[in-house]
Amino acid sequence: MKRVILTSSSGVGLTYAGRADMVVPLIFRFVWGPLPTSHHLEDYLTGGYYRGDPEVRWSDLVGRLPQTGLAHKETGLVWFCETYGVEFIELWFDPEPNSQLQLIWILDYLRSHPSITHCLRLRRVNFDLREADGPQLRDRTVRESEIAECDFEIANMAWEAYRAPTPELCFGLLTRDLPRLPFLKPALEALLAELPSPITGLGATEARLIELIARGHNRTKELFQPGGLLETRVFDQWELGPLLEGLASGPMPAVAGLDPKLATLAPHDARGRNAAYRRSRLSLTEFGKAVLEGREDFRRHNPIRRWWGGTLLTNERLWRWDRERRLLIAP
Q: Nearest to residue 162, comparing CAs of 308, 12, 319?
């Protein structure tokens, strides 16, 4: 086996592009909810199954291979690459923030496996993998570079910063020169922009949501669909629902018209929740209009308990981001 591609879920299409003998899409979403533990991430990559353990492993997303069949099943990723003579391991991660977080995580992990680090190649994917069609993925020229020790060091620094209990270390990285990982700083800044504003109390995607609702876009389908009006770079359509629910609940909601049945449905009831979202007809409350105009702070009147990387945001520990001044504001 000559070539393996590691990519994010955005790069699933590479499986059919004929650019590698094996394509491994990594599934983790690091931009929403608590981060997986180091043990959980290790288990995902080392393979093996345990009684009562329902978790997906890396190999579950790779089908039968022409050269090795199902030999990769229930094995470790590194062990498989060593055993089957993989010559090149290419990293295809586009500029989307979650993909950049996956890149620094996998680089940090592979750093401790020197037997294969010489095989690693970084592809500078400067376009959206999810939106690229088959011919683009197959034929597009994508710059390649070897992985240097400084790349591992930056990845380790950035991954530890994102996992830290405050966003301060991530903010500090914005002043660093990171030419070999050119999409990392823009991704970190996009993530920091999702912290509450010091004026409105809303993150960038929340603010965009209420702007669109104020313009009359009252259907969740047009707000949530990939590549739609919202143009979010950080959250996917499954994460936008809880974000919208946060704006429509609490003592002083900014959004009205969300189907009340959502409050009674289990988080895993995707079918029921999707139907409830489709039934919703959204509008701004008077308070929501005041928030949109910067006359009210949403977080002064409503609770928050949300993860930003390793930081748990609460009303008592509410880190904020000033987008105009590019400044992190401590609680």
A: 308
One domain for residues 213 and 73: no
User: CB neighbours (10 Å) of residue 264?
Assistant: 9
User: Residue 31: which of 246, 311, 247 has the closest Cα?
Assistant: 311
Q: Confidence class of residue 210 from pLDDT cuts 50, 70 and 90? A: very high
Task: Determine the Cα–Cα distance for residues 325 and 159; give it in Å rounded to an integer.
Answer: 25
Do 66 and 172 fall within a single domain? yes
Q: In the chain, helix, strand, coil percent, each to 5?
A: 40, 15, 45
278 phi-psi bin (left φ>0, alpha ψ -120 to 50, beta other): alpha
Say what percent of the chain tops pLDDT 90: 79
**Cα 90 to Cα 280: distance, rounded to the nearest angstrom:** 44
Two tokens at 213?
Answer: 């609702």
- Distance, CA of 185 to CA of 172 (rounded, Å): 10
pLDDT tens-place string over residues 241-300: 999 999 999 999 999 999 999 888 888 888 999 899 999 999 999 999 999 999 999 999
H/E element, 107: helix 97-110
Structural domains of the chain, count: 2
Alpha-carbon gap, residue 147 to 127, rounded angstroms = 20
**With contact defined as beta carbons under 8 Å apart, do 92 and 59 qualify?**
no
Q: Provide the residue range defining the domain that includes 251.
A: 204-303
DSSP letter, residue 69: B
Per-residue pLDDT tens over the stretch 162-182: 999 999 999 999 999 999 999
DSSP code of residue 239: H
